[in-house]
Amino acid sequence: MGDGLSRREFLSGAAAAALAAGAPRQLWPAQAKLEPKADTFILLWMAGGMAQTETFDPKAYTPYESGLECNRVLSTFPQIDTAVDPIKLSQGLERIAKVMDRATLIRTHRVGDLGYILHTRHQYHWHTGYPPPQTVAAPHLGAVVARTLGPKHPDVAPFINIGQNLEIGGESDAVKAFHTSGFLGVEYAPFLIDDPSQAVASLRPAYLEEGRFRARQEGYRRLLEASPVLKEATDYQQESWLRSVENAHRMLASPAAKAFDLAAEPKQVYDTYNTGKFGLGCLLARRLAEAGARFIEVSSEYIPFRYWDTHENGHARAIGMKRSIDAPVAQLVLDLEERGLLDRTVIVLASEFGRDMMVEGKPDKRVKDQVSTSQPDTMTEPKHYGMHRHFTEAGSVLIFGGGFRKGYLYGKTADERPCKIVDKPVTIEDLHATIYRALGIPADLAYEVEKRPFHVTKDGKGKPILDLLA
Amino acid sequence: MGRAATWLPAALWAAGAAAQTARVDFARDVQPIFLSRCAACHLGENRLSGLSLHTRADILKGGQLGPAVVPGSSRDSLLIQRVSGFSAPSMPMGAEPLTERQIAILRAWVDQGAAGPSADAPARRTAPLALRRPAVPGGAENPVDAFVAAFLARQGAEFPRPVSDAVFARRVYFDLWGLPPTPEQLDEFLLAPNREPLIDQLLANRKNYAEHWISFWNDLLRNDEGVVYHGARQSITAWLLKALEENLPYDQMVSALLNPTRKEDPAGYLIGVNWRGDINASQVPAMQAAQNSAQVFLGVNLKCNSCHDSFISSWKLTDAYGMAAFFANEPLEIHRCDVRTGEKASPKFLFPELGEGVGGSLEERRAAVARLFLTPENGRTPRTLVNRYWRRLFGRGLVEPVDDMDAEPWDADLLDWLAADFAAHNYDLKRLLRQILTSRAYQLPAAGRGDESFRGPRYRRLTAEQLVDSVSSITGQWRVLQPTRAAAGTYARDWRLKSTPLTRVLGRPIRDQVYTGRSEEPATLQAIELVNGDTLRRLLSRGAQRLLGTWKQPPANIFDSGAMRAEKVTVDIDITGARALRLLLEDFDSYDPERVVAGWANAELVSPAGITRLADLAPSAKAQKRALRIKGEAFAEALVTPVPTELVYDIAGKDYTRFRAVVGVDETSLQNDINPRVRFFVFTEEPDRQHLVRVAETGAGGRGSGAGASAQQLVPRLYRHALARAPTAEERRLAEAMDLEDLLWSLFMSPEFQYIR
User: pLDDT of B457-469, one tens digit each?
Assistant: First the structure.
């Protein structure tokens, strides 16, 4: 007789998700455990390089004029007031402006200096904390959170990723490279939902109505019971397999699965969020956070040259992008606050780098222009009007909840071009360290892979910026 | 946490202690345990709780909680208490405890006085470089069995009886072809169950053998299908497939990989996987080549010491650079932690006793390093390969982990004998397989798990490719390999196609890393995908149709433009007798399909009576008449539709004989952020959206297992095909009452199917 629960017990549902044998060991640093301020992490990912001077770090506004020198333009929108007096945002973010008194705004997020600026390379760096290539399969921070803190609710996948289709043409392999739990193992891999309005199909089999689905599971169970082979050998491997099937069934049938069904939301609320795929993704994230997901990423989606990746027509496209995020993000904050969940949920809105009209890369480096559509020195058509170049020196990060300070502005960028960081830069590892700290995870926590520690921030060197935490 | 306490009753200690009377040697017995199980926290730069286990002096000194051992008294030693679990937290923390034997060794060491050298560098077992040729023990025909029998005897275990013929057949078909035996193949074997001839027969089928083993090699060599290859990455599929089909000797494979000289050689291996931009010095292509080659071919980990001297082994930074220098285009400057040191690396092999470093041109250096990997004195190369194959067939290597060939094998004699025999017989991979597969050891019942010593093959999980190919082979529903140009697709085994969410979740890796083994642990996400995912659902739905004979051959297109971007393609096809004309414009991964302007220009229908412009026929709300400019040519009037759209024209009884048009994308759509990729099709009946492209219904595809049979006939066939046995009466009764798709699903989800036993 093998060890562990009998097959019968598994089939009857008496199962719990167990750590896979041989999964990487956790190497907890010597200091005492940290007291977490939050237990849920929602990442709102502005993929493609969100122009910070058109959103959260507005500069002097210069309206479009044919014949105007591009160098004279820093922002293409006027500024608006927010609920926090000195903080101004760009026109188009009126609703987020109203909830800035719940926010910490970092304007000095400095990302890695990776030479040639490939979006997916920076996205990989941001999502894993390590610039590729790496010698091991680096895990997405969602997998790190899922592995370290475990599921919040046993019936809800701990790591959920919404909105990014992985088949996007040329850069698909790079995108797939960081949408992974890496060496942490498949148990912590992301549960992928491409389209939030179809999310319910991810759990409720769309092709099998309720009765048929149950009939199939029943038939499966009975066949297993009748098998002479399974009767004769209770084996660890077979039990592991049945246990994971049991877990899957539990997840699919649990009440928590209803969270995936956006149609269950009152129409008025649905309509507020429904600015498009991203907006509905925020609604789904809220529902999943309520149901017990641990980490949820909602991506505005990276497709080369689309969405935030404005290489031309930046002004016109920024209008649309801001409209797609303004109401949903504000509503997400308000809804979680109303439900008493905001204080225990870290919401982070970030992008892989910022944008500038003239500067490509860091101000003191010469990086070749990445694309064929060149930015002229003088504007002659509206499509020249906007932030079209990758700016890796400074970007904006907006954080709500989870123990972060409220109504707080951190860091300053220059008001003239180049809009370098003047005060308090925030690197990726320090930003991650601060978020992890809020979740109770030490910045030098490591997992053992190939006999050596792999730290959750780069080489364990991230330092939490305590000034950002209340 | 207090200091070491002695509150434990003596009886408990006595019960836990295993007999260990031999003299324990610190360097030989104790340090390897620390190195393999404690290093991550208590060696090198890490001194958690202040404790280093680096040297004896460190151990005696201890950390924040005082000395780790009290020489002469294991009972009073904190280290022993922790590893025995008598004091919390137990060590290693958060991981599998030490084995009883290891704990006994440590206990004995302490009780014997905790003696040892005070040398600084951690002594670590290094495998001997040269192969020994140990004498084969008597008692068995196959030397593998002789060694295994001797091993089992030393454990006090008996040689179990081999598995039944059916179990054997299923096992060996999966191991050589990656497919289950069909009921016919199974029956044929069972009539005359001669196992050796079966093995020979399976080995002789080059195609099936190669198409299975290529996945094993793709994992090791970072090669994949469906990947975008551009200048900084190159596929090696053509070479690899041929190498497997022709059973290229392993030494020639390694030589071609390390030193590609001919056009058909796999240059892609050394080119590696590259990201544009500034990368860490430890990841330049030459360093990647050194790391991966050392790992894959020698079982040496150079990754740690690509940035600094290793903390977990004796390899130094200069060793990694010495290897990289064989592969570098220009002289490599040594960087320590990505900071320049000003020193240049010169080629130096990891094992200098095998040969001098060589200078000269890149070609000369590559040739030299290939020779050094393959010189007969380098026993690591054949040993590493043999161990990988052993692990693939038994579920656990003679050495574990397989990438650390300095770890102690559970039978060093067997390993060396096999490696020497492999090298002596021309590095013949099929012969090696045969040697192992014909042994009785391979035919033992599946047993054992974790670190347990050898008792036979382990239960092994079907790989992602084996699973999908099995489902395809049983149902007749295969994936289609579609060329981008306008040619028929072919049914193909899963390895040839891009990974899917199903195969990725089941473990097919994204091959930007070297993978020398896949996890076999089931995960909830896998189960969810299998229960609910689209990929499997579609496979089963169509598969069920094929089996029941209700599969309708989808209509073939009469025109296919192939994938198009900026091209201009002329349509001129025969439509005599067609009752309907269906014009499809499909999206094939444009960045922004909604903004693609494309259509059918100068579209006209020819009949004996004359020419009719398509635009003059009943207009469709979906089509807009406007000008198009395709590849420099202006078309005044074209039918432009959104992407995707199907235009349907009823032409029954109209005597049209030909349809002509020019198709393409308007030049204004050729923008970066639109990036149009479309495809035009013409059908005369309603198409099957999953089969727009034609498929050549030959080869692997077509009929499933006993297609067209009744449910009664199908059930026994399905059991025999999937599980290599007949269903019991009770199983039959249940299965016949089930919907076929449900039955298929249940069979494929059963652990009996998922595992090779």
Answer: 999 999 999 999 9
**Which ipTM value was assigned to this complex?**
0.91
DSSP result, B709-746: --HHHHHHHHHHHHHSSPPPHHHHHHHHHS-HHHHHHH
Interface of A with B in 206-265 (CB under 8 A): 207, 212, 215-216, 219-220, 222-224, 226-230, 233, 235-238, 240-245, 247-249, 251-252
Question: What Rg do the C-alpha atoms of chain B give, in angstroms?
Answer: 32
Residue A48 has pLDDT above 90, yes or no: yes
Question: Which amino acid, residue B688?
Answer: D
Question: So what's the pLDDT on residue B277?
Answer: 87
Q: Is residue A212 part of a domain?
A: no
Distance of alpha carbon A29 from alpha carbon B46, whole angstroms: 10
pLDDT at B701: 47
Beta carbons of A118 and B276 less than 8 Å apart: yes
pLDDT value of residue B4:
35
Q: What one-character-per-residue DSSP string does B142-191 give? A: SHHHHHHHHHHHHHT---PPPPPHHHHHHHHHHHHHSSPPPHHHHHHHHH
Is the residue at A174 inside a domain?
A: yes
Place of tokens 């599980």: B723
Residue A310 covered by a domain = yes
- Average pLDDT score, chain A: 90
Contact call for residues B525 and A157 (beta carbons, < 8 A): yes
Q: Count Cβ atoms within 10 A of the Cβ of residue B345 and give its class: 0-12 exposed, 13-18 middle, 19 or more buried.
A: buried
Extract the tokens encoding B346. Answer: 């010169």
The reported pLDDT for the residue numbered A373 is 62
For residue A8, what pLDDT band results from cuts at 50, 70 and 90? very low
Q: What is the pLDDT of residues B505-530, one digit of tens each?
A: 999 999 989 999 999 989 999 999 99
In whole angstroms, give the CA distance from residue B460 to residue B57: 44
| pLDDT score, position A419 | 95
In this prediction, residue A7 has a pLDDT band, given cuts at 50, 70 and 90, of very low
Structural domain containing residue A159: 7-200+259-468
Closest alpha carbon to A19 in A447, A452, A459: A447
* A213 domain-assigned: no
Q: How far is CA B479 from CA B482, B498, B686, in A?
A: 9, 10, 22
Cβ-based neighbours of B164, under 8 Å, separated by 6 or more: none
Instruction: Indicate the number of domains in chain A.
Output: 1
The answer for residues whose C-beta is within 8 angstroms of residue A373's C-beta and 6 or more apart is A311, A312, A388, B672
A 289-348 near B (Cβ less than 8 A): 303-306, 309, 311-312
Residue B386's SS3 state is: helix
How would you write B237-287 as a 3-class SS string?
HHHHHHHHHCCCCHHHHHHHHHCCCCCCCCCHHHHCCCCCCCCCHHHCHHH
pLDDT band at residue B74 under the 50/70/90 scheme = confident
Residues near B664 by Cβ (< 8 Å), separated by ≥ 6? B564, B566, B567, B568, B569, B598, B601, B628, B630, B631
Contact by Cβ (8 Å): B60, B67:
yes
Is A269 an interface residue toward B (CB < 8 Å)? no
- Tokens read off for A135: 């010698």
Predicted TM-score of the model (pTM): 0.86
Task: Determine, for residues B276 and A157 on separate chains, whether the beta-carbon distance falls below 8 Å.
Answer: no
Residue B618 has pLDDT above 80, yes or no: no
| A149-163, B97-111, B727-741, range with the lowest pLDDT | B97-111
pLDDT confidence of residue A194? 93
**CATH code assigned at A168:** 3.40.720.10
Q: Which two tokens stand for residue A340?
A: 């008493």
Q: Which of B43, B275, B315, B502 is the mutation pick for testing A, counting most A CBs within 10 A?
A: B275
Q: Which residues of B touch A121 (CB under 8 A)?
A: 275-277
pLDDT of residue B710: 73
Q: A372 and chain B: CB distance < 8 Å anywhere? A: yes
Distance (Å) from the C-alpha of residue A127 to the closest C-alpha of chain B?
16
